[in-house]
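W.,

You were right to be curious about this one. When I first looked at the sequence I had no strong expectations either way, so I just let the prediction run and decided to look at it fresh. Below is the sequence, 382 residues in total, followed by the output.
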Amino acid sequence: MDTRVALADVSGVVENVTALARSLPSEAYTSQAYLDAELDQLFFKEWLYACPLALLPEERHATPIVVAGQPVLLVKDETGGIAAFHNVCPHRGVLLVAQPCRVRQHLVCPYHGWQFSFSGQLIRTPHFGGHGQHTSTGLDPCQHSLRPIRALSWAGALFINFSDEAPGLNDKLAALAHHWRDYDFARLRYGGSIEKTIEANWKLAVENFVESYHLPWTHPHLNSVSRLDAHSSLITESFISQISHHYDSELAGHGALPRFAGLPEQRFSMAEYPALMPNVMIGVHPDYLFFYVVDPISPGRSRQAYHFYFVGDDAMSDRLAEARQCVIEQWRAINEQDVEMLERMQQGRDSRGYAGGPFSPFHEATTHEFQKRVAMRCYLVD
């Protein structure tokens, strides 16, 4: 069934020629109806970044997280296997686990004591049929187990998918993995995160990430070492990307960090920044990688997180702590500059004087493509 919604006129953004297209109307960034459509058509159907694998504790632990507004429970069993469930008891809808915890034998609901195995199976319902009667006619444990969520890992990160019908994670990442076949992501080691709540719609963050047009004015220092004219764009069916062809780790101040081995020479001066629908952005460099995720809270508020990974065990040594921190602090500063513009764009969406603008045919084809894909997936277009 088609559950897209008919909203304001978005026909301008689906124009195939970027120079002739118009951006999404302001309502797409301020209306709950738009966000509901995006959650239903994108977030609840696509693979989403959940967390760094390294942040999950040892065996027999339960870790609650929130993804796309949904309470999710990540469980590590006694063998280290990871499963994901909707973090809600099927009896009365209580949040099952509120804080990360070690699980002795079973997951236990704090309200009525229902117990679940590491695989989510309902195994005990204390006194449900009366005092001392732990079963009841008509109660089928198989019908009241925890609802599973698909969970798979890639490049040191755990991804989840709320849909049973979506293609697999390998299918989603196949083109990008082939594009990056020179990088040995098995060597990645998690090195830290930055998180921040911003007063801006999630789409603005993605739109900003995939274009370099704003560099000279928003990031003057970054533009001095990675110039606007040294960037290009790449649009594929699987991802939308901007590329810097003038990356220099020595100039950036962290040249001591180990690099991926065996890269073609041209990749040592390249950094790529693709976005995967809907909200997963990646920065791959010769000496580190990050995932940047922006999660909608409301039409005008989002939660953003950068997760940094470095190359090999030596990169995580005390000797290179300063170099790792240099990378993280540089992106913290860049992000603060971006956030100011994102929040000012969100404020501008309240103006009656703005009804969507044009795209630069050279610099903003990526932004146009992202908006077009959102519109085609989520809104009914005449």
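Here's what jumped out at me. The radius of gyration is 23 Å. And, maybe more interesting for your project: The chain has nine helices and 17 strands.

Coffee later to discuss?

I.
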